[in-house]
TrEMBL record:
CDD domains linked: TilS_N
Keywords: ATP-binding, Cytoplasm, Ligase, Nucleotide-binding, tRNA processing
Protein's UniProt name: tRNA(Ile)-lysidine synthase
Organism: Pseudomonas umsongensis
Residue span, Lysidine-tRNA(Ile) synthetase C-terminal domain: 364-432
Binding site for ATP: 30-35
Keyword Cytoplasm: yes
Swiss-Prot/TrEMBL catalytic activity: cytidine(34) in tRNA(Ile2) + L-lysine + ATP = lysidine(34) in tRNA(Ile2) + AMP + diphosphate + H(+)
Coiled-coil stretches: none
EC number, UniProt record: 6.3.4.19
Its job: Ligates lysine onto the cytidine present at position 34 of the AUA codon-specific tRNA(Ile) that contains the anticodon CAU, in an ATP-dependent manner. Cytidine is converted to lysidine, thus changing the amino acid specificity of the tRNA from methionine to isoleucine.
UniProt cross-references to InterPro entries, sorted A to Z: Lysidine-tRNA-synth_C, Rossmann-like_a/b/a_fold, TilS/TtcA_N, tRNA_Ile_lys_synt, tRNA_Ile_lys_synt_N, tRNA_Ile_lys_synt_subst-bd
């Protein structure tokens, strides 16, 4: 092995030094040049270094007939190197961008495989970083997007690492040539209708012919922008600390913020803070869609504004903004009779209900609000449920799915609301565990 490749191995080992104590390293192995070199480097290092357990993951998208042979190729390579291989077959959801849909399916599979504190290693390199920067620039990305691919980020229960972002494609090709490695040439990589392929085959050759150091300087710009994004994240944390206050409805388990501290910030700081808060919850809106935030923020007190985003909705209620997604956005069917009230009742798309203490005798039912409900309260007589909910300031988006306990036509209790949950009427308590967030991102 020449000194050029010794340097490549040493750089890889240095970049992975903080992660040497991880339970396992998984290698995202497409079978292409980049991941083949990464796999080979790690397999060789494992012979002389004490590394976490290595394994490879090949995601089969099923988008091309030729791809059906790739798992066998990957198995052959892994078998020769003594690295276990896990093949995951995924369904790519149809949509406007096939590239994006395939990427989403791939990373969902990686997230499933990566367990607590384990590491997934991907083989993106410096050329990929430059392509990402230019691609996002052409799409009008902000500082976050232009900071490029991060070297590390959370993935499922573990971490995703890109240890070769300081390595060029030319270095990988030289390594593969010296070690006589074989790899898959994906025919779709030549299809220039895909934006990244067009940049790679049409734009970058012209750029580097005129400016040979273009890839290096673009990667350097991405690093500068990444540092700037870190400062913006610090500012967002400061601003969010003022808005991330307790609520009387924290038991809903929903992310929420106090609106008043946000309203005191400049428009730019509001967008920065909200982008930081929303980033793990949903794909962030582009510039044109931030008008939805203005409408939500400036709505009158009796309005019920909603800002619809890619993976959920922001609602405004009780001086706060609330993030709803998953089951919270699906209609809930009427539960009906509670035949075994001593046992928890699973409510379709609406969490779990329990009744503790001295359970009322007779046939009990669970219903949801339809309007016009009346409840008898000790010392207060009969009261409209709507007025009682107003008194307790229950957010509007909760009211239609708040479980109501009935005996015949008598409303006995409203889950979780002090004074209405059964304790005042008898020695029992109606408790509702709302549905959890299931947006499936981050």
């Amino acid at each position: 092995m020449n000194p050029f490749n010794i340097d490549l191995s040493a750089r890889l080992l240095l970049n992975l030094k903080p992660w040497r104590n991880a339970p396992a390293w998984h290698i995202a192995f497409s079978g292409g040049l980049d991941s083949t070199v990464l796999l080979h480097l790690l397999a060789q290092l494992a012979k002389t270094e004490s590394l976490p357990a290595l394994s490879a993951i090949h995601v089969h998208h099923g988008l091309q007939a030729v791809a059906d042979a790739w798992p066998d190729h990957c198995q052959s390579v892994c078998g020769a190197l003594g690295v276990p291989l896990h093949v995951v077959r995924v369904q790519v959801q149809p949509g406007a961008s096939l590239e994006r849909a395939a990427r989403d399916a791939r990373y969902a599979a990686f997230s499933e495989v990566t367990q607590a504190d384990e590491v997934l290693l991907t083989a993106q390199h410096r050329d990929d970083q430059a392509e990402t920067l230019l691609f996002r620039l052409l799409r009008g990305a902000g500082v976050r997007g232009l900071s490029g691919m991060p070297r590390q980020r959370p993935l499922g229960k573990g971490h995703l690492l890109r240890p070769m972002l300081d390595v060029t494609r030319a270095e990988l090709e030289a390594y593969a040539s010296e070690h006589k490695l074989s790899w898959i040439e994906d025919p779709s990589n030549q299809d220039r209708q895909f934006s990244r392929n067009y940049l790679r085959h049409q734009v970058f050759p012209a750029l580097t012919a005129r400016w040979p150091q273009a890839l290096v300087t673009m990667a350097r710009s991405a690093a500068h922008l990444s540092e700037a994004q870190g400062l913006l994240d610090d500012l967002a944390q400061i601003d969010l600390s003022q808005a991330n206050t307790p609520s009387d409805f924290d038991w809903l388990g929903l992310p929420s913020l106090d609106l008043a501290p946000l309203e005191k910030l400049s428009a730019a700081r509001q967008r920065n803070a909200l982008s930081h808060w929303l980033e793990p919850l949903t794909r962030l809106p582009d510039s044109d869609h931030w008008s939805g935030w203005v409408d939500l923020r400036d709505a009158t007190g009796d309005a019920r504004p909603i800002w619809r985003l890619a993976d959920g909705q922001l609602h405004r209620a009780g001086g706060r903004i609330w993030w709803l997604s998953g089951a919270w956005l699906r209609a809930v069917p009427a539960p009906g009779a509670w035949l075994e009230p001593a046992q928890p009742l699973v409510l379709p798309d609406n969490g779990v209900l329990t009744l503790s203490g001295q359970i009322p005798a007779g046939i009990l039912q669970i219903r949801y609000r339809e309007g016009g409900e009346v409840m008898a309260l000790p010392g207060r007589g009969h009261r409209d449920l709507k007025r009682l909910l107003n008194e307790t300031a229950v957010p509007q988006f909760v009211r239609g799915r708040l479980p109501l306990l009935y005996k015949g036509e008598q409303l006995l209790a409203v889950a979780n609301l002090p004074g209405l949950d059964g304790k005042a009427q008898g020695d029992w308590h109606l408790h509702w565990q709302p549905p959890g967030e299931d947006q499936g991102l981050s």
